[in-house]
Amino acid sequence: MSVYAPFAKPLYVMLKPVGSFCNLSCDYCYYLEKSKFYTQNKNHVMSDELLERFTREYLESQTMPQVLFTWHGGEPLMRPLSFYKKALELQKQYGRGRQIDNSIQTNGTLLTDEWCTFFKENNFLVGISIDGPQEFHDEYRRDKMNRPTFQRVMRGIELLKKHEVEFNCMAVVNDYNADYPLEFYRFFKEIGCQFLQFTPIVERMANGQIQPALATVTEKNAELAPFSVSPRQWGNFLCTIFDEWVKNDVGKIFVQIFDSTLANWIGEQPGVCTMAKTCGHAGVMEFNGDVYSCDHFVFPEYKLGNIYTKPLTGMMYSEKQLKFGNDKFDKLPRQCRECDVLFACYGECPKNRFSSDKYGEAGLNYLCEGYYQFFHHVMPYMDFMKKELMEQRPPANIMKWIQQGNP
Q: DSSP for 264-330?
């Protein structure tokens, strides 16, 4: 049994100020269909009363001097600027002088000079969802009238740069853009993105709807969604980009999966929950106060309660949530437990564990083949960077090492 001590990590709950509402209609979006759980609520908007209740309780629950608020969607910019100004007032009111940071994930199409001025003045970190060059992005990221969105997103990025707002890019890797890794990666370098996150899209469908990965009732009827990246595509994609990055961009471009891999290599906590030994410390609160185990598990069976009837700490450190987090390691199949690179991924995200391993055990990650290829490919490079870090030298020395004809 893995160990997850309550309060060992800061309590973290992502906020959905407009629930699943969005001005776009991306083909692969796993969140748009969450509105079906709230058919009695016509107005999916977080009230000022709930905002204050959450802010007060969230800040009172923290054991660390630095607190992070994360605003997500749907599309969080569908709330007016006045909502976020109110949020900052409440943070100051209940923060008791602690450092409070804010991040917001947006599709970028609604950004204006006014929004960007606000973000700059208040040190927001802005995450932009963009899937690479125009041809790749517009394949699946279109609006509700099926119009392409790339040009609007790029206008938003230019506004962020104009106002010197710190931003990073979150790029979904799908069945289409995965076949063009270098064009994909070089695009982000060209637009000045220093911090980059790749999210492989893996979803299953049944009766035209995305299915919860761990639900057993619908599992037999579910089929892989056509836009999902294949394991082989994912492995080739990561290896190709890594080869470019490790020769030229270490210390200049920060790719989340590469940084997290190195963290696991040296035994540190990775910066992303999917590659940690356990999960469950990152919940999500909907517009009406419902709290769920994880952003990818907003299904009735993973609802922890509602903030109006249960305290945040009671939900996030409940037996149900602790078990959810521990299951990430405890339910690994035999093939994973025997794997020589288990330490590097710990089976990745539980939502993708719907395959069977070579022994016939359920719970193997669908992308296992791709991850296994990647971790073995990067092994000599990770070993070198680990050694540099242990000697208190910069990992970027690897670029010179490669130029000398290694490994």
A: HHTTPPPSSGGGSS---SEEEE-TTSEEES-GGG-SGGGEEEETTTS-HHHHHTSHHHHHHHHHHHH
pLDDT at 213: 54
Bridge partner list, 285:
15, 291
Pick from 286, 316, 312: nearest CA to 298: 286
Give the tens place of pLDDT for each residue, 340-385: 999 999 999 999 999 999 999 999 999 999 999 999 999 999 999 9
Rg, the chain, Cα only: 21
Residues of the chain scoring pLDDT < 70: 1-9, 40-42, 208-221
- Residues in Cβ contact with 344 at an 8 Å cutoff, skipping those fewer than 6 apart: 261, 264, 265, 275, 371, 375
Measured in whole angstroms, the distance separating CA 112 from the mean position of its chain's CA atoms is 25
**Left (φ > 0), alpha (ψ -120 to 50) or beta: where does 215 sit?**
beta
Closest of 383, 380, 391 to residue 266, by C-alpha:
383
Distances (CA, A) of 223 to 83, 205, 219: 40, 5, 9
The distance from CA 164 to its chain's CA centroid, rounded to whole angstroms, is 24
List 295, 327, 357, 383, catalytic entry:
295
Three-class secondary structure of residue 58 per DSSP: helix
Read off the DSSP letter of residue 223. E
Distance from C-alpha of 22 to C-alpha of 365, rounded to nearest angstrom: 30
- Token reading at 141: 């990221």
| pLDDT recorded at residue 34 | 74
Residues in the chain: 407
DSSP state of 216: S
List of residues 6+ apart from 10 with CB closer than 8 A: 62, 63, 64, 67, 68, 281
CB 16 within 8 A of CB 50: no
* 295 tagged catalytic: yes
